[in-house]
Design brief:
This protein has about 450 residues and is α/β, with parallel strands linked by helices. It has 2 domains: about 140 residues, Aspartate Aminotransferase, domain 1; about 230 residues, Type I PLP-dependent aspartate aminotransferase-like (Major domain) (Aspartate Aminotransferase, domain 2), CATH 3.40.640.10. Helices cover about 45% and strands about 15% of the residues. It contains 15 helices and 14 strands. The strands form 3 sheets. Strands 2-9-8-7-6-3-4-5 form an 8-stranded mixed β-sheet, with helices on both faces. A 4-stranded antiparallel β-sheet has the order 10-11-14-13. A two-stranded parallel ribbon has the order 1-12. Helix 4 packs across helix 12, helix 6 runs parallel beside helix 7 and helix 8 packs parallel to helix 9. The longest helix is centred in the last third of the chain and has 26 residues. Bound molecules: pyridoxal-5'-phosphate. Pyridoxal-5'-phosphate binds next to helix 6.
Length: about 450
Amino acid sequence: MNLPAPKPEQQNPSAVPAAAAAGRSLDTHLRRYAARTAGMTASEIRALFAVASRPEVVSLAGGMPYLAALPLETLSADVAQLLATEGQTALQYGSAQGIPALREQICQIMALEGISAHPDDVTVTVGSQSGLDMVTRIFCDPGDVVVAEAPSYVGALGTFTAYQAEVVHVPLDDEGLIPAELERTLSALAAAGRRVKFLYTIPNFHNPAGVTLAVHRRAEVLEICARHGVLVVEDNPYGMLGFDGQTYPALRSMESENVVYLGSFSKTFAPGLRVGWALAPHAVREKLVLAAESATLCPPTFTQAVVSRYLAQHDWMGQIKTYREVYRERRDAMIGALEAHLPAGCRWTRPDGGFYVWLTVPEGIDTKAMLPRAVTQRVAFVPGTAFFGDGTGNSQLRLSFCYPTPERIREGVRRLATVLEGELELISTFGQVVRRQPTGPQSPSPDTA
Ligand SMILES: Cc1ncc(COP(=O)(O)O)c(C=O)c1O
């Protein structure tokens, strides 16, 4: 066989500029990717967050729990004892559904929000993010619709897009999802012949909106979804973090056959353990376990054992109370600073729990365009566009109060106020800024989650 003569760079590979080679390799892989990867795009703001993590920047962006509130010395002694006494099982493969003792403890936790569940219907997940992934994988075909609040959790939007589902938003107000808007949206989608697979909702201390679905709306939301044949996916990582110790009846406590409930230890204990769970209707449970098995074989036995031991041996409710107190103080610091410093025309939500405040800025300011200027002024936030599947949300942004100290929060809000005033000045000098074309949802980074 006559092979073509090698090109000069093939004769001497070291002569090929590395960047050109990398570009060619990228092209080759681009052609190989599955169509579904088209929706997996890195957020444009990722690079900015690398700068925002510098110590001089007050980051009001990330939703990172304040782990300094954990008794780390006691926990490390516990982990050492776990390895010494149960190491061989704790480090072994386990069941795809999760270790039975932990599933029983999870049922006791869910009982605090009125849920009566059997451990057989609980599947332990690698954080609730992997629960979201599995639920979307088993229910959504390309082109299916997922209905979600406007705004919604960035990580969920990224997952829905990765499975080529289309997100249709339903507005919320200070009492959460608006039932009449849900009814209107589902009727319009049915009339258009669209296949809606589920409503994705975060009823308690919403990320990013900070609001809670009013108790009197809950039955109505369930009734509307049941009537339209739409499953409800209830994502509840913040439900135990009500600042006055209040909890709300889970949607799953009111309806067991049409709700998949997702829970997590990320906000009430620690996210690095990556332990969450899904409580599914009995008929769905088997598919969910099969999906879990294909993704991870089994959730990590070790971290499940750590969580189970922690729940059995520690005052975990006391720890949650400590977290609530820390976050309540930080919420107060943030709300106080917003009231003291923000220019007229700004509006914000007043969360009773969780991590986030949702801020609406005066007309004409584009929060995504403003972010680089804010980072220059040493304050970071997440622009509202991250939380919409259709690229809207330019007039909004999310502020997190979970991680910085109250003093840093006050300083961060002071800096943000200066940035907003600068934007208003620009607008009054040059007129309304030109809006960018909306883009679709992008994959979250831990900074935006
Ligand atoms: C609403 C919501 N769902 C799910 C997650 C993911 O949580 P986990 O760490 O359990 O995967 C987050 C994390 O911020 C969240 O805010």
